[in-house]
């Protein structure tokens, strides 16, 4: 007897009924981004970093020395897997993390004030530049934070902590009338 499963996003129940027309401060949930974890072997860090930054339609997020999360909304997992395989598994093994990670995008003119309530990072534009990313604690949850625009950031968090982080971010943004919805 075949069984049908409904594909649901982990945050469907958190957002259902609360989606609103975006305000200037908005928290977007990316529906189905592709996320790969890449770890360069010793001695190949610079080569892999250069190769990842030149790949089209992907955004490498630095996690640590020789370690990245590769994120894409435009490409499917198979296309990214082929591109990463071309780099050589002996130089940089990789794993598809798409089902285990959630990507949130937060933006607005006072986005740094919202994030300052829940992370200890210095997010001043002169210190945390566009394109920069790092692993950090956000609302007591391990996450990867990337600055993607003048007043825009992306947060990548493990699926099991996404609901908690989403609820906490909504609470931190109440002062600025933060709205939320699926991207």
Automatic annotation (TrEMBL):
Query: Highest taxon of the source?
Result: Bacteria
InterPro entries attached to this UniProt entry? SoxG, TrmE/GcvT-like
From the Swiss-Prot or TrEMBL record, give the protein name.
Sarcosine oxidase subunit gamma
Q: Mind giving the lineage of the organism this protein is from?
A: Bacteria, Pseudomonadati, Pseudomonadota, Alphaproteobacteria, Hyphomicrobiales
